[in-house]
UniProtKB/TrEMBL annotation, chain A:
InterPro entries: MetI-like, MetI-like_sf, UgpAE/MalFG_permease. Its main location: membrane. PROSITE patterns: ABC_TM1. It is a multi-pass membrane protein. Residues 68-280 form the ABC transmembrane type-1 domain. One of its GO terms (cellular component) is plasma membrane. Keywords: Cell membrane, Membrane, Transmembrane, Transmembrane helix, Transport. It is found in: Cell membrane. This is Raffinose/stachyose/melibiose transport system permease protein.
TrEMBL record, chain B:
This is Raffinose/stachyose/melibiose transport system substrate-binding protein. Gene3D superfamilies: Periplasmic binding protein-like II (3.40.190.10). Residues 1-24 form the signal peptide. Keywords: Signal. InterPro entries: Bact_solute-bd_prot1 (IPR050490), SBP (IPR006059).
């Protein structure tokens, strides 16, 4: 085995296919996107080079910053919801009765496709026949809001299914990380008289920290470029109140036929994601990794 | 050890095979769309991309297949390869294909503003020769013009639509309502219905063009068709008094609870189901919905029998005419400029358009863009009435979002949603329109 992996040619052979694939479908398009962003282009005819005009316009575009704010809010909520998922995972990992069942229940949304989830929640939020409003009316709340039609609440109404969609994924990751912590540590802490809260805070959390860091990056970056449910459920509406960066990019490129500007948004989105990832890595950097074996 | 090494090599070979397999597939997929030149004798393949999938547009899909089969029987040297996509996907794919210059030989396009960039990019070929040939005088007046840019026609229309207000006769009977002739009467109908807890009008304004229809009619009736047309074309202004009043009127309709609850978050499909379930009394939509109110067996007979329509009422003191409609040609067929089988494709388009006219009336129950003698066909009354209305129309204004260039259309649609959602004022609404149209993209 070691002999195989020390042969440079073999390494190249293994790495090359996926490297070529990634170059062709990820890195080259990124470069092209950045280049398209420098052009005035309707996606069909000839391109005219306009330099940084699109990027300059982007900085002054109130609609873009509005959608960026919405994306940021989503990132914030996703980040915060991670704490809840961690707690749930800790409870599940503590070998309580029915943990197996709950784990499966939490995981199911992840198995559904985004469009199916969107359809499901459209039915829940339907202003007159929806499950939610029927329920609210039956407990005596007259005239409950039309969740997806009111500018002030639509964004938060969308956050719920988005967070729900990924809950199972993060709970599963945390569950696996927590299960990896040797039972001996917990037992030792118990003997020393630590209560459940102390064990969670002082033993489990630090040991799962590396995983937590990864999930923060995943959740925040995933939220910044989020698109699916918003596209299907509200299409960014009403009048832009649930527009996020990715949906704005889509609308500019495919609806308004402004591929140059759409590409500029796309590239800027990438820059934002990279910057945020870097900041998160810096903020959560620790000097010494905790060993427990 | 040796076995392991071999196994790993085998695995990586598999990966390479998979990768190259993908490559081969995609080559096959894209290479074909440009039409193969006449190889091995006279065999010709025409690639035809359209948007009538079997599930969504069963009637149209059947007709397409029928026409293609007939054509292939009559022209044994021609094979027609279909690619079927759903509406939105179709639009996206058309864009992507045109960016890489791989348009199909024959495809479906929309009129005016949608067509413009494709014509500027020289991707569609003019079909004027067909219009002066066998198809001369076959089209309903005003349909092919929507596909003309700089004096050349780039596509041949298939359908022609106008948008009436459909209403549920049994709901109207229950509350002893009459068909409104004036806008004041319409408002009275709305008030009675909403006082009785019935949603007056089904509107799915998440899709935005649905609300645009309402604005356009109000604008037409208040400011008159010429004012609306010139504002859309950029010659006039949306700040014209009548147009401003129309925008304000939209908001007062919203205030009077005229539209279903949460209309700005509902899609057209969801709104339509409110009307189909008898929960909303009125629904304004194009004549492409006719099959659902006449022949579609999936919808209960009781309901289909109780659907009637009326023209958008006149507004007192307004400049509009009750016989002025909002509508226009639906989709049309284009032939790719870079097609290698242009002559054959044009012949197919000519054949298709002619056959479509005859068969779409009886088969799909939609109104074709070609002149059809419907007098000796057995057709539903609702269809005949609307067909006659169309022939008496004093003017037909093309849907605003189709008329405008893509960017202006997007502004228009966004502003419509904002206007209905009261997130903007009529003044701001008009101003944004003028700016967007003036920018010329």
């Amino acid at each position: 085995m070691d002999k195989v992996l020390s042969n440079k040619k073999i390494i190249a052979l293994y790495v090359l296919p996926s490297l070529l694939l990634i170059l062709a479908i990820v890195y080259i398009p990124i470069v092209l996107t950045a280049y398209y962003g420098l052009n005035e282009w309707n996606g069909i005819g000839a391109m005219t080079f306009v330099g940084l005009d699109n990027y300059m316009a982007l900085f002054k575009d109130a609609t873009f910053w509005n959608s960026a704010w919405h994306s940021l809010l989503l990132a914030l909520f996703s980040g915060l919801s991670l704490m809840l998922y961690l707690v749930v995972a800790m409870v599940l990992a503590a070998r309580i009765k029915g943990a197996q069942l709950f784990r499966k229940i939490y995981l199911i949304p992840m198995l559904l496709s985004s469009v199916a989830i969107a359809q499901l929640w459209l039915k829940i939020y339907h202003p007159t026949n929806g499950v939610l409003n029927t329920l609210l009316e039956s407990i005596g709340i007259a005239n409950p809001p039309a969740w997806l039609a009111e500018s002030s609440i639509v964004l938060f109404a969308l956050f719920i299914p988005i967070l729900w969609q990924y809950a199972g994924f993060y709970i599963l990751i945390y569950y696996a990380a927590l299960k990896n912590i040797p039972a001996s540590l917990e037992e030792a802490a118990k003997i020393d008289g630590a209560n459940a809260l102390q064990i969670a805070w002082k033993i489990k959390l630090p040991l799962a920290m590396e995983v937590v860091k990864v999930t923060i990056v995943l959740a925040v970056v995933g939220s910044l470029k989020y698109f699916d449910l918003i596209f299907v459920m509200t299409d960014g509406g009403p009048s832009g109140s649930s527009e996020v960066m990715a949906s704005y990019m889509y609308h500019e490129a495919f609806r308004a036929y402004d591929f140059g500007y759409g590409s500029a948004i796309g590239f800027f989105l990438l820059v934002i994601c990279l910057a945020v990832t870097w900041v998160i890595r810096k903020l959560t950097a620790t000097k010494d990794t905790i060993q427990y074996s | 050890m040796f076995n392991k090494k071999r196994a790993m090599l085998l695995l990586s070979v598999c990966l390479v095979l998979v990768v190259s397999g993908c490559g081969a597939n995609s080559n096959e997929g894209t290479g074909g769309t440009n039409g193969e030149p006449a190889e091995n004798g006279d065999k010709v393949t025409i690639n035809f991309m359209h948007l009538w999938p079997e599930g969504v547009s069963a009637g149209q899909n059947k007709i397409v297949n029928q026409i293609i089969t007939e054509y292939q029987d009559e022209h044994p040297n021609v094979a027609i390869k279909q690619e079927v996509l759903d509406n939105e996907q179709y639009k996206n794919k058309l864009k992507v294909l045109s960016a890489s210059n791989k348009l199909p030989d024959v495809g479906v396009t929309w009129a005016a503003g949608f067509l413009q960039p494709y014509v500027e990019g020289q991707l569609f070929t003019p079909v004027d020769d067909l219009l002066s040939g066998e198809l001369k005088d076959k089209f309903v007046a005003g349909t092919t013009e929507a596909y003309a840019i700089d004096g050349k026609t780039y596509a041949l229309p298939l359908e022609f639509n106008i948008a009436p207000i459909y209403y549920n006769k049994s709901i109207f009977e229950k509350y002893k309502l009459e068909i409104p002739q004036t806008y004041e009467q319409l408002k009275a109908v709305v008030k009675t219905l909403s006082d009785n807890g019935v949603a007056p009008i089904a509107l799915g304004n998440k899709d935005r063009w649905t609300g645009s229809l309402w604005y356009m009619y109000l604008a037409d009736r208040m400011a008159g068709q010429p004012a609306l047309s010139s504002a859309i074309s950029g010659a006039g202004s949306f700040k014209e008094e009548g147009l401003l009043k129309a925008a304000a009127e939209v908001q007062s309709l919203v205030d009077s609870q005229a539209f279903v609850k949460g209309f700005n978050g509902l899609s057209n499909e969801e709104a339509k189901s409110e009307f189909l379930n008898g929960k909303a009394a009125m629904y304004m939509m194009g004549t492409w919905e006719l099959p659902n109110f006449t022949t579609n067996e999936d919808i209960p007979q009781d309901f289909r029998d109780s659907v009637g329509f009326f023209k958008f009422p006149t507004v007192e003191g307004g400049k509009g005419d009750i016989n002025s409609w909002v509508g226009g040609p639906g989709v049309g067929l284009f032939v790719g400029e870079n097609s290698k089988v242009k002559a054959e494709s044009k012949a197919f388009v000519e054949y298709f358009v002619t056959k479509w006219g005859e068969q779409s009336v009886t088969g799909a129950g939609v109104i074709p863009a070609t002149k059809v003698d419907a007098s000796n066909m057995d057709l539903p009354q609702l269809y005949i009435d609307l067909f006659n209305e169309m022939n008496q129309a004093s003017s037909i204004t093309l849907f605003a979002d189709v008329q405008m260039q893509a960017n202006a259309a997007e502004t228009h649609l966004n502003m419509i949603q904002a206007l209905f959602g009261k997130a903007t004022t009529p003044e701001k609404f008009s101003e944004e329109h003028d700016t967007a149209i003036a920018s010329g993209k």
